[in-house]
Amino acid sequence: MRIAVTGTQGQIVSCLRDRVSRLRDRATGEAEIVALGRPLLDLSDRESVRAALREARCDVIVNAAAYTAVDKAEQEEALAMRVNGEGAGHVAEAAAELGVPLIHFSTDYVFDGSAVRPYREDDATAPLGAYGHSKLEGERRVAALCPNAAILRTAWVYSPFGANFVRTMLRLGETREEVGVVADQLGNPTSALDIADATLLVAARLRRNDAPELRGTFHMTGAGEASWADVAEAIFAHATKHGRAPVRVRRITTADYPTPARRPANSRLDSAKLSRIHGVALPDWRASLAHCVDRLLAGPDH
Q1: Which residues of the chain have pLDDT under 70?
Q2: 2-163+190-224+264-283, what's its fold?
Q3: Could you say which DSSP state residue 63 is in?
Q4: pTM score
Q5: What letters, b where the CB count within 10 A reaches 16 and e where it falls short, cover 151-184?
């Protein structure tokens, strides 16, 4: 299975490469990752997207590239919309022209966080900021232009690669005895390594089965829920097993840590539909987080 992935440096494409190089799962078969990025593929340029994906000669397309600077998007809303909204549409159009399935990644930021329970796929969307609006527009364009697509919303993504919360906490823990972390936002911490495993399974199903129910919008997050402070405490606790000095977490509120873009207080996503329809469920976040910390502190071969 030859999978064309938009983006060359992001967490998801990095984890897809990692998993394909390490694993040969009978459920997915042999897989090859073709990562496409600028200048060959520029999401804001319709013709470059079409040409690059046509040249890739792939069986499945994964749109993992995005404008992800949540705070900066408040000042660069037009750019975020060109990449996340219009760009997603360009990828969807190309997938439809090529007649191959598309997996498109979206985010919990399409919701406002006011619900008292985890969000389901059919709950009303109401983004709080420019980033969420641009990702929601991307979802709409994918749904309109490529019926042969699975839109996967995920949240609180971390991995051994790139910039993310886990790597930030480990870096701060090298020089600080205490770190203030927001405790009044809830979500589902999600390992991009687990996302990669699940993506390979979903891609294989879409390729061999044209059932309409396998398409549409699905939530894909790690099992269990936590606050950012809970995640930080788990990171520092596991780091001590590698000889790191203990670090205290000072629980603060969102108001104590103002940011240009508002964050949803409730980012929890209900992933039951993905499990029911695709038979895919991501592991509990605690085990996956421990594995990520091990990878970062014990070396890539752990």
Answers
A1: 23-29, 299-302
A2: Rossmann fold (3.40.50)
A3: E
A4: 0.94
A5: bbbbbbbbbbbbebbbbebbebbeeeeebbbbbe
